[in-house]
């Protein structure tokens, strides 16, 4: 059994983010997203009950003391995997003194649980010390299948499995209902994906003031390109081309719920600027890249503005490989 990282023994830093009002961000996105989508409607309003299908979150909302958490990083996966980087997320929330808490986003799944590397779509609610697990993992199926002839398998983690590994980008909040930024975008006419378009619009407007969002978006219509990581590579992955050759890519169909974070600046914390993973009731899920049906695509997103970034166990030696 791989033992989990001791949070008392790894660096944890927190830095504030710029926090404009929901209404201001809604206006900025309303204008800016029109470069990328034909139909855009952005509002500041109460989110629906996100515990209901097709969202299936473990809490009804995204708000209450909102922060971004970045855990580990791609240098723990490439060029070669560091198997000691196993993280218990329930223990992390205890360490951060957060209860009740929602932790939701994109990361590697707990390979010790299924014995192979996998994608993690983290959806964990802690209340009164108890874990309510909605996290899904997606792995290449069958294990060891060659790229091009493989499929994928989505599984839900049990409540007693709260580990993850290597890297993750999460929204941390109290999971309360409340006002968020709602983004409806249909028919893509620009080159950027949904999340990149949001991030670049905010970056253009706020410049050096780093803004961070965490939350969920639903692919309501259309298809998307996702990747699923196979088991760890036996040869070092030294370039983005190596990573690309290693990953398994699939076209997946709506509806797919995605969770993750985006941030418009690095704050000197070696951050991954955007990262979203998806899951669905029909088994499609993985790491979101972009939609493949721009004419048909419909996105519906709900985002909370984070007050700070909590950087947990950053790699001491870093690189830019594998961050797409």
Automatic annotation (TrEMBL):
UniProt-listed PANTHER family: ESTER HYDROLASE C11ORF54, PTD012 PROTEIN
Pfam families: DUF1907
One GO term describing the cellular component: nucleus
GO terms, molecular function: hydrolase activity, acting on ester bonds; zinc ion binding
UniProt main location, coarse: nucleus
Localization in the cell: Nucleus
Listed name of the protein: DUF1907 domain-containing protein
SMART domains xref list: DUF1907 (SM01168)
Key words of the record: Hydrolase, Metal-binding, Nucleus, Zinc
Database matches in InterPro entries: C11orf54_DUF1907
UniProt organism field: Leptosia nina
DUF1907 domain boundaries: 28-312
Subunit structure: Monomer.
